[in-house]
Write a structure and sequence with these properties.
Strand order of the largest sheet: 2-1-3-4-7-10-11
Protein name: NADP oxidoreductase
CATH topology: Rossmann fold
Organism: Streptomyces rubellomurinus (strain ATCC 31215)
Keywords: Oxidoreductase
GO molecular function: oxidoreductase activity
CATH architecture: 3-Layer(aba) Sandwich
InterPro entries: NAD(P)-bd_dom_sf (IPR036291), P5C_Rdtase_cat_N (IPR028939), STEAP_metalloreductase (IPR051267)
Largest sheet: 7 strands, mixed
CATH class: Alpha Beta
CATH superfamily: NAD(P)-binding Rossmann-like Domain
């Protein structure tokens, strides 16, 4: 798959590197073309340069910039993004008195919804924002004997299928969580998990499967 990346920070490097290892063609674009070229060279990407170049060569484009500027970065590229899958991994978060807090700039819409408004002909999918960037540096992310599950939300079935295939190519399990109207839930979940880690807890211990409970039975068996 040909993937463009908008951004040159930690998530751009981690996910871009993971996709290169999975055999995809990655092009990095950034407001600083030299920084984009350096990152591309570091992760083994096939190019580097301005954002428009990264978009035009891609089937899917990752937005890996701060959430507060994501729509402003995407809007000038709207024509080039038409028909392409736009991956949103951003987390709208700011420090709060009790730890990380979800921001509500943009009238309370999710960042994914703001990107869809900025590039209305793109096919936006919210994905890859739950985990810390360090997780994506693992060759095949997995824990306690199971591969990492990657939740995603999107309205377009073909775009969702493309993301599922991308996740699968990384050795992870795609977890479809509904349409783009549920993207805000993924953003809030990411902030919740970061807050749990910030407080010294383990977010994974908060969400055990009911199947792990002693004497658990399937819903079908209860009927």
């Amino acid at each position: 798959m040909r993937i463009g990346i908008l951004g040159t920070g930690a998530m751009a490097a981690a996910l871009g590197g993971a996709w290169v290892r999975a055999g995809h063609e990655v092009t990095v674009g950034g407001r600083d073309p030299e920084a984009a070229r350096r990152l591309a060279a570091r992760i083994g990407a096939t190019g580097g340069g301005d954002p428009a170049a990264a978009v035009r060569s891609a089937e899917a484009v990752l937005v890996a910039v701060p959430a507060g500027v994501a729509a402003a970065v995407v809007e000038p590229l709207a024509a080039d993004l038409a028909g392409r899958v736009l991956l949103d991994c951003t987390v709208p978060m700011a420090p709060g008195p009790d730890g990380p807090a979800l921001t509500t700039a943009g009238g309370g819409d999710s960042v994914a919804r703001r990107l869809a408004a900025a590039a209305p002909a793109a096919r936006v999918v919210k994905a890859f924002g739950i985990c810390h960037e360090s997780i994506w540096t693992m060759p095949r992310p997995g824990f306690e004997g199971a591969p990492l599950g990657v939740p995603y939300c999107g309205d377009d079935p073909d775009a969702a299928a493309l993301v599922a295939g991308l996740v699968d190519s990384m050795g992870c399990v795609p977890v479809h969580c509904g349409g783009l109207d549920r993207a805000a839930l993924l953003e809030a979940t990411a902030v919740f998990a970061i807050g749990a880690w910030w407080a010294g807890g383990e977010a994974r211990h908060v969400f055990p499967s009911p199947a792990l409970a002693p004497g658990a039975v399937d819903d079908d068996e209860e009927e």
